Amino acid sequence: MREPTKYLLSEAQMPTVWNNLAVELDASPHLHPGTGQPVGEAELSGIFPREIVRQELSREVDIPIPEEVREIYTRWRPSPLVRAKGLERALQTPARIFFKYEGVSPSGSHKANTAVAQAYYNKQDGTRRLATETGAGQWGSSLAFASALFGLELKVFMVRASYGQKPYRRALMHTYGGVCVPSPSTETAAGRKILAQDPDCPGSLGIATSEALEVAMKEPGTRYAAGSVLNHVLLHQTIIGQEAILQLAMADVEADEVIGCVGGGSNFAGFAFPFLRQKLKRGGRGPRIVGVEPAACPSMTRGRLAYDFGDTTGLTPLVRMHTLGHAFIPPSLHAGGLRYHGVAPLISRALERGLVDAVAVPQIDCFEAGVMFARSEGIVPAPESTHAIAATVAEALRCREAGEARTIVFNLSGHGHFDMASYEKYLQGELEDATLDEKALAASLALVPQPHAPKVAVPA
Amino acid sequence: MREPTKYLLSEAQMPTVWNNLAVELDASPHLHPGTGQPVGEAELSGIFPREIVRQELSREVDIPIPEEVREIYTRWRPSPLVRAKGLERALQTPARIFFKYEGVSPSGSHKANTAVAQAYYNKQDGTRRLATETGAGQWGSSLAFASALFGLELKVFMVRASYGQKPYRRALMHTYGGVCVPSPSTETAAGRKILAQDPDCPGSLGIATSEALEVAMKEPGTRYAAGSVLNHVLLHQTIIGQEAILQLAMADVEADEVIGCVGGGSNFAGFAFPFLRQKLKRGGRGPRIVGVEPAACPSMTRGRLAYDFGDTTGLTPLVRMHTLGHAFIPPSLHAGGLRYHGVAPLISRALERGLVDAVAVPQIDCFEAGVMFARSEGIVPAPESTHAIAATVAEALRCREAGEARTIVFNLSGHGHFDMASYEKYLQGELEDATLDEKALAASLALVPQPHAPKVAVPA
What ipTM does this complex have? Predict the structure, then answer.
């Protein structure tokens, strides 16, 4: 019999819990910027529904997935684990390459996993409207999809650089019934302040987060929904890695390398944390776990580990993370979902403890890998996901040199159907490689408090 | 236990043959326009590889799917059959609605099923390059995907109306490595002739077919690949309906209505013919089978059953079909894949014999149904597929009135990720309803030979 191409689980085999690694990783508390004290339920309940607040602060090992959420998940989950035979052939590598494919969700990426959970808990808690930020639009369109299912209104602040690059993403949100405006916008104090300083500001996830938070804090019936970074978001994504572990067992292989792209870090953590838990239980025996970030927005490899704000204007609690500084505005990468100044605190803890590795790759290399993947596997990957592919290709070529038959497993977090203008630009040779502005980075880092310093002033 | 959302088959359960209904339907032969005699292998072998010619003329009941094709199919097949619980709730209907989802293919539609088969047979037969036409681009991008896998070059003539509307589809073909030009083009005699008469001609599938055929006939190493209409194309799609029958059995239900959209007819036939075979075997007991076409391009409901050309300039054999006339240029529908002047001869035979029903629906109703589907099921359907949804919604609402719990099964032939500009136009209220030009239709029908007349002159 032929070896299967993909490994599918039945709906009955779909995991029933999310994995919370707060205890294993000894998660750092988020701090109130005024008092320097850990934030508790009271501070967070203004913007999040009760159950989300509980999950953000939870030390439970596993959290059950509600039946209503599970039922919606079954529209596309369990997602397939695919043997990338075409890519292996194209690379002539002895390595075995598998990818977990999250692009099968209705909105086209892993973001739907947490969008459905958050929309559900908000509906339960009486929320009328959600506000959020989005980069490339994968999060915004996923939350628009989930909001449509639960009858919630939605306002999305989309980073202006991506708003221009990805009109089809806007149209997708609109089709689902969501309202989408470019950020910085004139609708919030945060947006107006930034536009006054720089009318051509391309925006950033930090700025858009400030705008969404402001709306959620001011307007009654409106709450905020986060697409990455926070503990509860990473939590909801762990269904990915749990499924992948079951599927690798079906294929009767063990992963040697577990690879994911990192912006805020939710798809990476969702994919990698279940593997990490298993590895910790086995006393450190297990795969190398690698997060891949853009060379032009390198929070893990160039950032400082410190308490910093999650948004640009300082509306969030302080979170302990590798950060380029909350004032850092990344260049207009086509992987808009990775244009974030920091990384999830739980991933920062794992990095700090040497449990995961980080690498940074240039944008051009990522598109090259993306086109190779499209031509050998047929799937056009999201520009974000091409970062994981670029690292996979590099490892597979290393295996070819070394004659090693390692097993590489990466998370294909989403498809690139709404990013075709970026591919066209690349194919026409018109895509410039995004470069890191070292001067801006130094200036931004200077505004970051020293590591572990609990007290900082809210930026003026 | 909760009723499952989707019904999945294992790779081992994937059908091993394609169903050929040539005998059951008593297929009419294609005729040579000069001699009026049935065309044979000799005439077709100039433009198609041997095995495709054999399949086009075959009277075998089943044709085995080659192992190499099956292996590629398993990248996305068997495709899911999904219970549309969200749509049922939105419609408050007692009807049970299922859809077969072909949008899971790498290129996003059912077209990949025949693209892979045709690329395989061409590669086997020494073809270096393929030429084809495409409307909305679903066929062109599917063939680009398949050509990339088999290392074939590809030239695609894309109907100009769609070329402008769907830039992301062009970029997708380009990403797969295909070359795409708007049709009518200046690269062929057929294109130049039409542009001389009307420089603003929006093009049509018939014109683009003429251009692709001309290139295939003139240039060495180049063959033509058809995306619909012909027997072998419908044949390759029958894996859809075969899978759906197995999946309905898993769900323990029998279909009462089997619905698909119809342009050239390949997704409809691929979905419906296995049901039709079963129905014929049961002496006519079985589901009502309904093809849905655009009101502005109504070949089944307004066309004449006659021998006509498959392309505009008369390069194809004469095929017996319901036709609006080979000179008919449909209005610039957003469902570009349905802008064809005729319908597959095998479907015409089924219509003629009363084995299937045909309905025509206006474009605006289709987009309305498409948005309702997106908001209740999460999937944005291709504008072509919304025709099947509009008919499903109408039947489900009839069931609500009548209190009937019928089982409706439709084919969701593809997703609309590359058609978001059309959705945005609809949502902004800027989408005009495409209307049938009665005068142009009358003029075009006047050029169609009388029914069954075997001899016609090639148009000047």
Answer: 0.94
